[in-house]
UniProtKB/TrEMBL annotation:
<feature type="compositionally biased region" description="Acidic residues">
    <location>
        <begin position="216"/>
        <end position="271"/>
    </location>
</feature>
<protein>
    <recommendedName>
        <fullName>Tetratricopeptide repeat-containing protein</fullName>
    </recommendedName>
</protein>
<feature type="compositionally biased region" description="Basic and acidic residues">
    <location>
        <begin position="272"/>
        <end position="296"/>
    </location>
</feature>
<feature type="region of interest" description="Disordered">
    <location>
        <begin position="216"/>
        <end position="307"/>
    </location>
</feature>
<dbReference type="InterPro" id="IPR011990">
    <property type="entry name" value="TPR-like_helical_dom_sf"/>
</dbReference>
Length: 307
């Protein structure tokens, strides 16, 4: 969609402002993104910006609607992990799990795929499937020797789910890995370690676990040797979840119908917004023309006086 130059420049300025404010002042970023959306609802980047800002301010339904619209316009898997997190936040963890098992999930890059795994594990935990949440995170990227951008969050999520499953010694070890990988202070792993230290029997036990964890980070454990067994466990879990999903086919059909209705509503809204946007563009063009006429008249009057 091509916008008139004046309108395009205006929309671009608000998108830039949203991008600059989104980390520090997400509420103001959302105001700018909504303004841009009102004037250019058929631009994928506008809908994406609106969705991301809405997500960071806790406007889950708006975020999901906007990101779904952006994905439909631009193609590709889009922000699938954020969409799944919105579903979870709105009390629909089963839909978050379903997104993680969708065809689009296979198109994600490594970092986004890990993020989606983390969200889906939390959703399984919401559903009471604690052991499933643990097993679902036992992936190749769960390696303490790795220090990738997502490592701290993955290690922390794994530790958190282990703690929820009552496996506190293992949880302590992975909180150590999370703390060591967390250069940006994204997690509260040190606080969680302090909480668990008291439960595990005091300094001697803690020192032993820390030593084991740090040895693993430099290649001193048998993590890799257990990888094949972990994969087999996850395959078995997937088969079980597939069977459960089959028994919920009717509910899934209803979900699909609801999503189709949501998409139609988004399209209808976008069409209305397009009409409004076109009117705004026409009004701005008329204002510009009137301004030019007034300037011409002033110039003509000035010329006459000069003569």
């Amino acid at each position: 969609m091509t916008l008139p130059k004046g309108l395009a420049d205006n929309v671009a300025l608000h998108l830039i402002a949203a991008g600059q404010l989104i980390d520090s002042e997400p509420e103001r970023a959302l105001e700018h993104a909504r303004y841009a959306r009102q004037r250019a609802p058929r631009i994928p980047s506008v809908r994406e910006a609106n969705g991301l800002a809405a997500y960071l301010t806790g406007e889950w339904n708006e975020a999901l609607s906007e990101l779904r619209a952006a994905r439909r316009m631009a193609g590709g898997p889009g922000h699938l992990a954020i969409m799944a997190d919105c579903e979870r936040a709105m009390g629909r963890p089963e839909r978050a799990v379903e997104l993680s098992r969708s065809e689009e999930a296979t198109q994600l890059d490594q970092e986004d795929s890990v993020e989606l795994r983390i969200v889906a594990a939390g959703a399984r935990r919401d559903l009471g499937e604690i052991e499933a949440s643990v097993v679902s995170l036992q992936i190749a990227e769960l390696d303490p020797k790795l220090q990738e951008p997502w490592s701290a969050r993955l290690f922390y999520a794994y530790a958190d789910n282990l703690a929820a499953a009552g496996r506190e010694r293992e949880a302590f070890t992975w909180f150590v890995h999370a703390a060591n990988a967390d250069d940006e202070d994204e997690t509260d792993a040190p606080d969680r370690l302090e909480e668990l230290a008291e439960k595990l029997g005091g300094p001697d036990v803690v020192e032993e676990l820390v030593t084991e964890a740090e040895a693993a980070e430099i290649g001193g454990d048998d993590f890799d040797d257990d990888a094949a067994e972990v994969d087999d466990d996850f395959d078995e879990l997937d088969e079980k979840l597939d069977e459960e999903a089959g028994s919920e086919a009717a509910a899934d059909d209803e979900t699909a119908d609801n999503e189709a209705a949501d998409d139609k509503a988004v399209d209808d809204e976008a069409a209305d917004d397009k009409i409004a946007g076109d009117k705004i563009a026409d009004d701005e063009a008329a204002d510009d023309k009137a301004t030019e006429k007034a300037a011409d008249a002033d110039n003509a009057g000035g010329g006459a006086r000069a003569q």
